[in-house]
Design brief:
With 124 residues, this protein is α+β, with helices and mostly antiparallel strands. It has helices spanning 6-14, 55-63, 86-99, 104-112; strands at 18-22, 33-35, 37-40, 43-46, 65-70, 73-81, 118-122. Strand 3 and strand 4 form a beta hairpin.
């Protein structure tokens, strides 16, 4: 199983946004969109601000694969669903800590969108 390096985790965690490009049904990447990313231990997570209606999220759920760019890191990833467990409580806290300066109108929708949590797993 491929894992993130400490350098990749640190660079992505320190970046403001991640550019995400889920694959289309024909295997080509979609145009990259900015999303907020948080770290929990040695794992990285994203959520859809627009909930299940987010276009990038629907594409990611369909393809389960894509590409990310962030903090000088470019990587093919697998999108893994996260069951609503204790990890989501930690992800909520990570979003509030990292992005709280933007206010509740931005952070609260991400905290409420727990069911869209995707773990970014390095591919191959």
């Amino acid at each position: 199983m491929t894992i993130w390096t400490n350098d990749e985790l640190t660079r992505i965690e320190g970046a403001e946004e991640l550019r995400i490009s889920p694959l289309r049904s024909n295997g080509t990447p979609r145009e990259p969109l900015p999303v907020w990313v948080v770290r929990d231990g040695d794992d990285l997570y994203v959520r859809s601000f627009r909930g299940g209606a987010g276009s990038w999220y629907r594409a990611a759920r369909s393809s389960l694969a894509g590409r990310i760019r962030c903090g000088g890191v470019a990587k093919d990833v697998i999108f893994a669903e996260v069951p609503d467990t204790d990890v989501n409580d930690r992800i909520d806290a990570a979003y509030r800590t990292k992005y709280g300066r933007y206010g509740a109108s931005y952070v609260d929708p991400l905290v409420a969108a727990r069911d869209t949590t995707l773990k970014l797993v390095p591919a191959g």
